[in-house]
Design brief:
The complex is a heterodimer of chains A (about 675) and B (about 190). With about 675 residues, chain A is of the alpha+beta class. Chain A is built from 21 helices and ten strands. The longest helix of chain A is centred in the middle third of the chain and has 33 residues, at about 345-380. With about 190 residues, chain B is α/β, with parallel strands linked by helices. Chain B is about 45% helix and about 15% strand. Chain B has helices at about 1-25, 60-65, 80-95, 110-120, 135-140, 165-185, and strands spanning about 45, 60, 70-75, 100-105, 125-130, 145-150, 155-160. In chain B, the strands form two sheets. In chain B, strands 5-4-3-6-7 form a five-stranded mixed β-sheet. A two-stranded antiparallel sheet of chain B has the order 1-2. Chain B is elongated. Classes of the chains: A alpha+beta (about 675), B alpha/beta (about 190). Chains A and B meet through helix 10, helix 11 and helix 12 of A and helix 1 of B.
């Protein structure tokens, strides 16, 4: 009964979305205020009905209702409750339901909290949001019904992929989707503005909080995903340039560009069509990600079940939404430019460089990701594009970006005094160079690029701090005066400092863990000792232990340093009899300085297994935790910026704008 | 100029869309990895019989002197998909007069024997690959895997995974028919 309610609720949500696709749009065209305002009710109603459907599916998972095919395929009665709940979005159907739920949540969010947005723009935006909603709800109902029943019901389920039974991963899809799908509302705003034919500073300010919210979730989602890959997959890496990772990274790059270009549109009324294009492209790449993950177009470690028919449906949706919006762009964009002029050396110029580099980087990733497909189509050659391509093409583009990032915040609008800035940054540059040299003196090994990258990251960190210190006149003025200034500084400004510093911190992590990582793969018997990065690791053997729905071989490793005991590590290999697969649970000793990481592989042969011999992989990854600390700083920085009073109060009418700009935050 | 620039994104998007449409072709399998063995002679191996199974063992020499292409199936009693595939292979042997050879991969002889007693034995010969050595020679990535080997011992085709379901059976039967046709034309 409950699953049928869920399905019925989905059908209702679809019909509401259909009405919402038309009525508010017509209302905006005819100036009918009632029709326009209907979008508010229908957005909320959509959210409620999709919410009911989602709750119905979740309930089926919680009570292990094995009459529902989706539960049978993705759950098991013995699974821990958290993962039963996570099973709701563990499958293609369930995750798509989550997708539309978040889509509806962003629509309802604008309907409820966007009270400062003019009626016509809001009505059009919500109508566009309903178009997307219609497309995906029909996709869900027609090709991927999550409430399909099975008869006769089996006694137990097939279990969720054990790799996915992990807290980090249980939370990863919701956050990632929040980011992915969050850009939908920005897209809707952009299309609405194109239909309206008007983009101004106020528009940019209405859009900014939504962009920020989506960007924060996407950042958190990507960071969690890489964290999961790092400690769950047992490969000892945090980024593999896998197609599925890339498709989440590209919207992040473009979203970051959008965040910055929207500032120019807001403050200087420039970059209008560029901002609109970025808004469209960011969501287009999110859609592309959905398509690639679900169509089996490319090989990846974490693609969903391959189904060409579903792929065709999504491609159709993609064609309509991306093709339609870009066609609209081609038609309308040429007529809406103008805005402030600026000199090449200016805040605008800096942000332009930022945008160009970010977009080029996203393009590089896109080409690398799809290159195997192109090659297969044109030359019938099977190739794979791996980390070497991305490292060679992507990193050289990021380093200048980071260099400019250090200077950017010092630049003033319209025309900046580069000479003065360099004078202020002399010591920062000197210090950053010294950091690079010091690191080189300490390690001496590793690629030259690593030392350059360290120096550049130090440059960014110091320059960012210098800019912040300059704003609050730290050291120049009395301390209470600085404190007062810090309090009066808009939160968006603190947010920028935190986020930029976060990127610098993350870069230290990227470089440290890639350039100075040590790795040992050895064949060990109980009692054997391995020396790595100053640690001595003794293998004490393997014992068999039992978990709720798995059996594990648990190794014991005693770690010491110069004879002093440090820790004991217990890497495991778990086998899940029901799902018939095994996973590696690595053991990690985590410190700020670096991670000691051990994972156990199957015995080399049966004969070796009889003697208790195992293959052991031990890694030392210096500074790796800085990556996630940096990511957390990026997200917090976004949050600070989002909580800025200017965004909460919203954009006043254009005539009143100047008066509000200096309002201090309390 | 401005109009041309504004039209650029949609043009690029259309080109990408064309590639995607091509990529969705259901016959295309991005996971398919061409086997290094294809068109190569079958590897050298010599496996003893599974004790008590009632059929002789399997060696490379058994594959080199046949009239028509034969099928070599790698299976194990501990492999659940093999159980499903077993019925398909048995039917193929009964209907098509395929000559089927088996490599019993990393399996205890008594388990293999019980399995064959339960399900029946469609194999003409079965080599017992207890330590998985022959499996390595053949470059298998798991069980089951099935090869079509020409009469002179050349590997013509490799199928990874169970031949179960209309699509898989269709693919395999097509490959078998093709192998027969080309081998008939060659001699």
């Amino acid at each position: 009964m409950i699953p049928e309610i869920g399905q019925f609720a989905l059908a209702l949500a679809l019909s509401i979305a259909l009405v919402q696709s038309v009525l508010p749009m017509l209302g905006a065209a005819r100036g009918d205020i009632l029709w326009m305002q209907s979008a508010r009710t229908s957005s909320v109603a959509q959210l409620i009905f999709i919410g009911i459907a989602f709750a119905a599916l979740m309930r089926s998972f919680v009570v292990s209702d094995f009459t529902v095919a989706n539960v049978v395929e993705n759950s098991h009665s013995l699974k821990p409750m958290l993962f039963k709940i996570a099973g709701t979005w563990g499958s293609h159907e369930g995750s798509l339901l989550l997708w539309v739920l978040i889509l509806a949540a962003f629509g309802a969010g604008v309907a409820l909290f966007g009270s400062n947005i003019p009626d016509a723009l809001k009505a059009r935006t919500l109508s566009v949001q309903a178009w997307i909603s219609t497309g995906f709800l029909s996709f869900l109902l027609l090709t991927s019904n999550p409430f399909e029943r099975v008869f006769p019901p089996p006694l137990d389920g097939n279990d969720l992929n054990p790799l996915l039974q992990d807290v980090g991963l249980a939370m990863h899809p919701p956050l990632l989707y929040f980011g992915y799908v969050g850009f939908s509302i920005v897209f809707s705003f952009a299309v609405a503005a194109l239909i309206e034919g008007r983009v101004d500073a106020a528009w940019a300010r209405w859009v900014r909080p939504w962009t920020l919210a989506a960007w924060m979730s996407l950042t958190a989602g990507i960071a969690l995903g890489s964290w999961w890959a790092y400690y769950e997959l047992g490969w000892g890496g945090w980024w593999f340039w896998d197609p599925v990772e890339n498709v989440s990274f590209m919207p992040w790059l473009l979203g970051t560009a959008l965040l910055h270009s929207a500032i120019v549109t807001e403050k200087r009324d420039a970059f209008k069509s560029w901002t609109i294009l970025l808004a469209i492209l960011t969501f287009s790449l999110s859609l592309l990600g959905t398509f690639i993950v679900r169509s089996g177009l490319l090989t990846s470690v974490h693609a969903f079940a391959v189904d060409p028919e579903r792929g065709l449906y999504i491609l159709g949706l993609l064609g309509i939404s991306i093709g339609g919006s870009l066609a609209l762009f081609a038609w309308r964009a040429p007529s809406m430019e103008g805005g402030g002029l600026f000199a090449p050396i200016s805040r605008e110029g800096g942000l332009l460089v930022n945008n160009l580099l970010l977009v080029t980087a996203a393009g590089t990733v896109l080409v690398g990701t799809l290159y195997p497909l192109f090659m297969e189509a044109l030359a019938n050659e099977k190739i794979s594009v791996g980390p070497p391509y991305f490292n060679v093409s992507f990193i050289p583009m990021m380093l200048p970006l980071v260099l400019v990032m250090g200077i950017g915040p010092f630049l003033s609008w319209k025309r900046a005094d580069l000479k003065g800035i360099f004078q202020r940054l002399r010591f920062v540059a000197l210090l950053a160079g010294l950091v690079g040299l010091a690191v080189w003196y300490m390690f001496k090994g590793g690629p030259a690029l690593a030392y350059i990258a360290v120096a550049i990251a130090a440059w960014l960190l110091l320059a960012t701090l210098r800019e912040w210190a300059g704003r609050i006149r730290l050291f120049d003025a009395q301390f209470p005066e600085s404190l007062r200034r810090a309090r009066n500084l808009p939160r968006a400004s603190h947010g920028m400092t935190l986020a930029h510093a976060g990127l610098a911190v993350a870069i230290f992590g990227f470089v440290g863990s890639s350039a100075w990582k040590s790795e040992e793969i050895v064949f060990v018997r109980p009692g054997d000792e391995i020396a790595i990065a100053g640690f001595d690791v003794r293998f004490d053997g393997v014992e068999r232990v039992r978990g709720p729905n798995y059996i594990a071989d648990r190794g014991t490793l005693t770690v010491s340093r110069n004879g002093d005991p440090v820790t004991t590590l217990f890497p495991e290999r778990r086998s899940y009899p029901v799902a018939q697969s095994t996973t590696t649970e690595s053991a990690i000793r985590s410190t700020l300085a670096g991670d000691l990481y051990a994972s156990l592989s199957a015995p080399a042969s049966d004969a070796a297994a009889d003697q208790g011999a195992w293959t052991l992989r031990i890694l030392y990854e210096p500074l790796v935790n800085l990556i996630w600390i940096g990511a957390a700083m990026l997200v917090l920085g976004g949050g600070l910026s989002l909580s800025d009073r200017r965004l909460r109060v919203g954009a006043p009418r254009r005539s009143a704008r100047a008066a509000v700009q200096v309002t201090p935050a309390e | 100029m401005r109009r041309t620039l504004a039209t650029l994104p949609i043009l690029v998007a259309l080109v990408f869309g064309g590639f995607f449409l091509w990529g969705l072709n259901p016959d295309r399998d991005p996971n398919a990895i061409p086997s290094v063995l294809i068109s190569q002679p079958a590897p050298d191996f010599d496996l003893p019989a599974v004790e008590g199974a009632g059929v002789p063992g399997l060696a490379r020499s058994d594959l080199a002197t046949n009239q028509a292409p034969v099928v070599v199936n790698v299976f194990a009693s501990w492999c659940v998909p093999c159980r499903a595939e077993h019925a398909v292979l048995t039917r193929m042997v009964e209907r098509n007069q395929v000559r089927l050879f088996g490599i019993n991969y990393k399996d205890k002889p008594e388990d293999a024997r019980r399995w064959l007693e339960d399900l029946g034995n469609p194999y003409e010969r079965i080599g017992s690959d207890l330590n998985g050595r022959a499996g390595i020679e053949w470059g298998i990535s798991g069980v089951p895997e099935t090869f079509i080997v020409d009469g002179d011992g050349t590997v013509l085709y490799r199928y990874v995974g169970p031949i179960v379901g209309t699509e898989a059976e269709g693919k395999f039967t097509a490959a078998l028919a093709q192998a027969r046709a080309s081998s008939g034309a060659g001699t």
